[in-house]
Design brief:
The protein is mainly α. It contains 5 helices and 2 strands. Strands 1-2 form a two-stranded antiparallel sheet. It starts with a helix and ends in a 12-residue tail after the last strand.
Amino acid sequence: MKSNTTMEKDLDNYYKQIAKALPAGGRKALLPGIREGVEAYLAENPDATMDDVIAYVGTPECIANEYYANQDGREITKEIKVGKKILIMFLIAAVIIVLILVISVIFFLIGSSIIESRFVQYDGGVVSNPDLLPGYGFN
């Protein structure tokens, strides 16, 4: 049998693979039971290897296939729609953030150029109204 830390890492990886193979609803419904089942199996079979656990519980793909096989088509469609809604909301939020940043940069650049154009050097002093300068083409 592998050391406890190696087995724990393998089990964590196994649970992550299962979670990745299942939709959110399936994760919430199945993972706690799978963890309990694996813990009970390991308590009864202390010399079990990761291969033994997978043979007892199943591969992540088999678990996901079983989950989908036992689900009503409407439930699967609902889970897919929820996932798409979350993705769309995330994309909209990202676009809004990008737009805000672009608009902020534009206003900053416009504001900087307006401030720079309103003040010119004239005989060592600063003139706040360039229209008052004769011969500089501001009239």
